[in-house]
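Chapter review: from sequence to fold.
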Amino acid sequence: MQNQLDNDRKLTEAEERRLARDKRTRLNRRGRKDPSAVPARLTRTSAFAPRRYGTVNANMERIFHVPGHSVVLVKGGELGSVHRDMIYALFRLKSKLANSRVRNPLAPENGTTDGIPTHIDVVESVLSWRDLLLTMHKTQHANNILTMVNVMEELRSITMTIYDGDPDEVMRRLGAGRVPHGRGQITGVIDGVEWDGIQLDSKVKVRWGRTVMTAFRTRALVSLNAEVQFALKSEYAKSFWPFIDSNPTHVYIDETMLASLISYDLFGDGDTNAKRSQFRKDCRQAFDDMVKAGGLRHYTIEELGNGRMKMRRYHYKHALLTAAEKPQMQLDLLAGITDGKAEAAVA
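The token string follows.
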């Protein structure tokens, strides 16, 4: 009787949206092998420069804007592709992630709380140096451990201010010298790193920042084909692939968006024919690299507009089919086999 009542109950609007979202998610799955479950904000941002190594500078401050997706203010330096690869490798090691409750270091030692919680929830990755190097396709050598330590130190030193709400409206208010409406947070990608030695099998503990914790709690995660990410050689490709792979329904991307992903002011005041020509050459090489790495099957370039403002649009076909595309492919294959048999019978 209770089950019948549950079946007859009308779903709320929020429940219907959640069911529709879950259905879309299932249909858009691509069957990635051992993917990285990455917070969406870290795949649709231009906060990572198209260079292997970034710049650590305490006085550096820069706003990174991807229209329609994110606005991030980065202080303390600039992150490069090696930092992005480190983050994706840690997220790929899902079995090494753990939630725990630890004592709040800001809580008074005398036992009184004074409004400060005595314990806090944390998300940590607990692994070995060997785990990390293998996942990133790096040689298992002591010198690479030093590189990993330096990259983690740089990740820890840089802070981000992340603004919620419409990114374009956020940029308008920031440009006017005003604080954007809505929610925001100042956080680091990681809050701390501990290790018990520098041997390959020594334990390493990485504690994630507030943004990552929020993403895990709200399940604001996207699957990323990390195998392709680590196989890419082009720094531009490493900036483009996370955005392309995390948008499963997209079949093309305009070069204006590609420019936003690497913080290049296309058609801006400082843009020149020479710079634009080099940018487009690098974009073509990036797409060639994504095909070679197994991320895309193929791509074509469409030219839109006229004169100096002529724009390129990159149409592409993802190498992996979505769950929604697979039944159609099976029907096409079956039709091809049937047609072949019919032709043979006629002959």
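Two observations follow directly from the output. The longest strand covers residues 55-66. The first helix runs from residue 2 to 8.
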